[in-house]
């Protein structure tokens, strides 16, 4: 019996010693109280949806007693396995983020943040989770699991709001034969949460063709639409109509298929809206005439592979044509350069726009001719102040302005310059006439000196005349070619006469032979006559 009492006393001592080191619950009175639960930040009204990842779960609690050596964390596995899960943020096995405090006074709020993932298969609703707190109360180890509700009330539904060819700033109607054009799909978030990392895959179908295209949107805010642009082509034999296309989306941990309608109803209509020439009045043999044309695409989409060029049997076309891959709706301007020919009258130019031909007529006026006649005084070597006369006449039907006349002459001639004004030699071979009305003539006189080394004969000279009319800046010109005659002096004539050469010697020899022959014949005949008497 004695040993029995001793055993009971030892067992009670052991239990008493154990109770002094093991943490115990603080009886029926809680040691902490959860005062707030939210997502992202304290007191935030943001919601989360199933499938969202890396979401901050924020829990605020208030100690009801002074606690020391406190450890606290949010326990998301105690009540609902698989609804929330911890995020592996440091490369270790995912687990709760523990917070340690040396001392927490009673009544002071404490906030914990735990990064969690939400199961994509979770349903909307409130889920029970736990806050674990352990520490010392009056040097006695205590702990407590305080339950609280976590709301999962968000949803995300990505739908196609609209789809069209082109971009938001430049939409266009779709038509057959289009190549590598933008296709824009407007994706709208009909949910109440920010949907992040939306992966999109598109495979063109039906008359729409192209390669598989993948892209990712960083975020689609709730209630907003975000454009996604793909590059597609349309088959040449596609007919107008509505064609269903499909997108494969992945967001919030799940795959979704959405469809949208794409309409082909585009057409183009090209026409010539205006044209004008610069200069506005065209004359024969005129160079670099500018023909400006305006083209209107009054359709609702691009005109594809449009060639724009001009042809004419009356004009020489200097400009190459234009080849526009896609000519959008609207007005466009093009310019061509042409030369007129020598024929005057009504002439035709064909403007080719795509498959259409638009003929235009233009009257080409005859250019007024500048008639030049030439005469001269006698020019002899070493003689000064001889005159060259050029009579210039406007034989056209328009007034000529700023007629510049320039004489080109050989080195044996120089423009006579008075000794009182030697600088005149710099411009003496250039003469300007203000204007010549139709039928008017003007006599241009150049006074020249002839070199003493000049030989008699014909020497080429050239007169260059340029002018313009009052309706064009283009310069017209005429080159008149003739020759100046140099006559020999009396001394040269006598010198030439008494200058012997092979020809003159031969001529003199013939003359001597003839004279001698005649003399001999006359002598013989005279002697015969004397003998007869």
UniProtKB/TrEMBL annotation:
TM annotation in the entry: 502-524
- In its UniProt entry, what is this protein called? TVG0507890 protein
Domain of life where this protein originates: Archaea
Which keywords has UniProt assigned to this entry?
Membrane, Transmembrane, Transmembrane helix
**Highest classification ranks of the organism:** Archaea, Methanobacteriati, Thermoplasmatota, Thermoplasmata, Thermoplasmatales
- Organism for this UniProt entry: Thermoplasma volcanium (strain ATCC 51530 / DSM 4299 / JCM 9571 / NBRC 15438 / GSS1)
């Amino acid at each position: 019996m004695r040993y029995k009492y001793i055993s009971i006393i030892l067992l009670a001592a052991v239990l008493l010693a154990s109770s002094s080191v093991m943490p115990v619950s603080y009886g029926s009175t809680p040691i902490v109280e959860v005062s707030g639960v939210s997502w992202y930040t304290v007191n935030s009204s943001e919601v989360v949806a199933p499938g969202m990842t890396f979401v901050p779960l924020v829990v605020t609690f208030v100690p009801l007693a002074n606690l020391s050596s406190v450890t606290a964390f949010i326990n998301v596995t105690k009540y609902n396995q698989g609804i929330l899960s911890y995020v592996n943020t440091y490369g270790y096995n995912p687990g709760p983020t523990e917070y340690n405090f040396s001392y927490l006074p009673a009544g002071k709020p404490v906030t914990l943040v735990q990064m969690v993932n939400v199961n994509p298969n979770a349903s909307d609703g409130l889920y029970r989770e736990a806050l674990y707190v352990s520490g010392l109360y009056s040097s006695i180890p205590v702990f407590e699991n305080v339950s609280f509700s976590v709301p999962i009330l968000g949803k995300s539904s990505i739908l196609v709001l609209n789809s069209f060819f082109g971009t938001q700033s430049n939409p266009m109607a779709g038509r057959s034969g289009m190549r590598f054009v933008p296709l824009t799909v407007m994706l709208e978030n009909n949910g109440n949460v920010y949907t992040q990392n939306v992966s999109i895959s598109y495979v063109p179908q039906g008359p729409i063709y192209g390669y598989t295209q993948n892209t990712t949107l960083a975020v689609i805010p709730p209630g907003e639409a975000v454009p996604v642009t793909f590059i597609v082509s349309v088959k040449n034999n596609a007919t107008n109509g509505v064609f269903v296309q499909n997108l494969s989306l992945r967001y919030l941990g799940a795959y979704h298929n959405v469809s949208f309608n794409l309409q082909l109803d585009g057409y183009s209509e090209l026409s010539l809206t205006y044209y004008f020439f610069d200069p506005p009045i065209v004359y024969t043999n005129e160079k670099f005439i500018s023909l400006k044309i305006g083209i209107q695409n009054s359709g609702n989409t691009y005109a594809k592979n449009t060639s724009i060029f001009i042809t004419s049997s009356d004009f020489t076309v200097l400009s190459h044509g234009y080849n526009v891959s896609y000519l959008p709706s609207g007005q466009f301007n093009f310019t061509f350069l042409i030369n007129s020919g020598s024929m005057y009258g009504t002439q035709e130019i064909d403007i080719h726009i795509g498959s259409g031909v638009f003929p235009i007529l233009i009257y080409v006026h005859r250019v007024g001719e500048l008639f030049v006649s030439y005469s001269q005084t006698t020019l002899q070597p070493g003689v000064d102040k001889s005159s060259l006369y050029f009579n210039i006449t406007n034989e056209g039907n328009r007034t000529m302005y700023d007629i510049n006349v320039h004489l080109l002459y050989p080195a044996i001639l120089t423009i006579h310059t008075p000794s009182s004004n030697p600088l005149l030699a710099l411009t003496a071979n250039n003469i300007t006439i203000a204007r010549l009305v139709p039928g008017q003539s003007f006599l241009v006189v150049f006074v020249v000196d002839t070199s003493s080394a000049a030989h008699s004969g014909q020497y080429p000279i050239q007169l260059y005349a340029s002018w313009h009319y009052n309706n064009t800046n283009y310069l017209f010109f005429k080159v008149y070619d003739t020759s100046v005659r140099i006559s020999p002096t009396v001394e040269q004539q006598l010198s030439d006469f008494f200058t012997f050469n092979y020809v003159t010697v031969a001529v003199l020899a013939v003359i001597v032979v003839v004279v001698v022959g005649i003399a001999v014949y006359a002598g013989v005949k005279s002697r015969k006559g004397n003998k007869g008497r």
